[in-house]
């Protein structure tokens, strides 16, 4: 316990000689790698006892011998109903509901509503995310103000609201009979928490446009994770567009702008955190895809994952004493409170718009809307926060989004072809 700070203390200086802002050099406790290990230790204090309990109940054959009022809870958490459904073509996506003889005008208004909802939710979320993590609160002529540094608290705020929204939705609408053991959600929850934490933390070291572009390129690690986790195979066009995305991202990252400000410098820590975000997020999507072999709705998935996310984050925050510190920060700065609440509302509403858009128009239309959102997010961030992008960097951004649209077009063509295949033929699985 006492050796850990001594080991981690020199790490900020050793990170390939990068220049870390003075605000991040106040103490070894402010270094992101130390906070990562502290958070991981908090999650482990919940995961390890839970794992031991699960193994205990399985060894005792509790499903056959268990009795009492706790039996239904333990059965649901450890064993589930073990009833699986046929794996759907799009993995985590439910079959799209065909429109029932509605007019073209009504469908157009629905599409505009979905597009506006997604753009408003996630563009506002992106602007607020950069504001909270890169700017100070309470600044005056004599006082420089203070920054909010605990990314885990923001993750907790997002998850607690998403958990509430998903719970209310499940309670008020008819859902499929749940069959998955609850503990299986914890894997996706843990990777989802870590990916969100890396996403917030990375903004301390890189610009928001860089982060958005890196998120757009996550199809590459998703493909790699798909081969490892789900043993998927891919078409040649998927490898081609992945290569184009890599080229575009490299052009953007390697381009140098004149008069670079510290906030736009891509540092080593930022690259590592972005890598962590992409790896954890890729695992999350593939694990959720595997969980959908059980009969469940996307909102049930949202609820199950966020149950464990709330448990992990609040447990870790309480163990560190960071929950009260963050609440005190909210009490000192009402502007931060408004930003944090709006950030959570946008995140939860955005997830509901995702489910509704995919259900009404399918995954291809949804992907086009979200790809446009990423392009708008880069433009909006540059306009509001003054990020500089060179000609080469702008060309790299264009290459990335052209490759993403090519993926959407090629996927839609492959789906049309797969519908015409003979019953015995099976199309190649796609991401």
From TrEMBL:
Q: Which GO terms describe its cellular component?
A: endoplasmic reticulum membrane; Golgi membrane
The main place the protein resides is membrane
Listed A to Z, the keywords are: Membrane, Signal, Transmembrane, Transmembrane helix, Transport
List, alphabetically, the Pfam families matched. UAA
In the UniProt record, does the keyword Transmembrane helix occur? yes
Where does the source fall among the domains of life?
A: Eukaryota
In what way does this protein cross or attach to the membrane? Multi-pass membrane protein
Spell out the molecular function terms from Gene Ontology.
3'-phosphoadenosine 5'-phosphosulfate transmembrane transporter activity
Where in the cell does this protein reside? Answer: Membrane
* InterPro entries the record matches: EmrE-like, SCL35B1-4/HUT1
Where does the secretion signal sit in this chain?
A: 1-17
Transmembrane stretches in the record are 31-54, 108-128, 153-172, 236-255, 261-280, 301-318, 338-356, 363-386, 392-410
The record's comment on protein family reads: Belongs to the nucleotide-sugar transporter family. SLC35B subfamily.
Q: What is this protein called?
A: Adenosine 3'-phospho 5'-phosphosulfate transporter 1
Q: Which gene encodes it?
A: Slc35b2
């Amino acid at each position: 316990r006492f050796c850990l700070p001594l080991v981690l203390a020199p790490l900020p200086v050793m990170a390939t000689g990068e220049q870390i802002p003075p605000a991040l050099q106040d103490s070894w406790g402010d270094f992101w790698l130390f906070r990562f290990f502290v958070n991981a230790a908090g999650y482990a204090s919940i995961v390890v006892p839970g794992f031991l309990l699960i193994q205990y109940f399985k060894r005792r054959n509790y499903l056959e011998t268990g009795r009492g009022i706790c039996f239904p809870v333990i059965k649901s958490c450890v064993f589930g109903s073990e009833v699986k459904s046929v794996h759907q073509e799009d993995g985590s996506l439910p079959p799209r509901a065909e429109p029932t003889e509605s007019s073209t005008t009504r469908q157009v208004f629905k599409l505009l509503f979905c597009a506006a909802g997604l753009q408003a939710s996630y563009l506002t979320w992106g602007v607020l995310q950069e504001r909270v993590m890169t700017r100070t609160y309470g600044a005056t002529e004599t006082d420089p103000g203070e920054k909010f540094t605990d990314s885990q608290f923001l993750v907790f705020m997002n998850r607690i609201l998403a958990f509430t929204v998903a719970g209310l939705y499940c309670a008020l609408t008819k859902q499929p009979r749940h069959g998955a053991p609850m503990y299986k959600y914890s894997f996706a929850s843990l990777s989802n928490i870590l990916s969100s934490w890396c996403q917030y933390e990375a903004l301390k070291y890189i610009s928001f446009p860089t982060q958005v572009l890196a998120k757009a390129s996550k199809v590459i690690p998703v493909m790699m994770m798909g081969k490892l986790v789900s043993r998927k195979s891919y078409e040649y066009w998927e490898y081609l567009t992945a290569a184009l995305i890599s080229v575009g991202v490299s052009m953007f990252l390697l381009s140098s702008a004149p008069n670079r400000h510290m906030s736009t410098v891509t540092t080593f820590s930022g690259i590592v955190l972005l890598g962590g975000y992409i790896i954890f997020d890729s695992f999350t999507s593939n694990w959720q895809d595997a969980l959908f072999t059980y009969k469940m709705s996307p909102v049930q998935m949202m609820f199950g994952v966020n149950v464990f996310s709330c448990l992990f984050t609040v447990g870790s925050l309480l163990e560190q004493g960071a929950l009260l510190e963050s609440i005190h920060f909210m009490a000192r700065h009402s502007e931060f409170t408004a930003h944090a609440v709006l950030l959570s509302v946008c995140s939860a509403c955005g997830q509901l718009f995702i489910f509704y858009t995919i259900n009404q128009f399918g995954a291809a239309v949804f992907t086009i809307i979200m790809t446009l959102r990423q392009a708008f997010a880069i433009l909006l961030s540059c306009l509001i926060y003054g990020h500089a992008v060179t000609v080469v960097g702008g060309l790299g951004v264009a290459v990335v989004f052209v490759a993403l649209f090519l993926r959407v077009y090629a996927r839609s063509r492959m789906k049309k072809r797969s519908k015409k295949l003979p019953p015995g033929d099976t199309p190649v699985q796609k991401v």
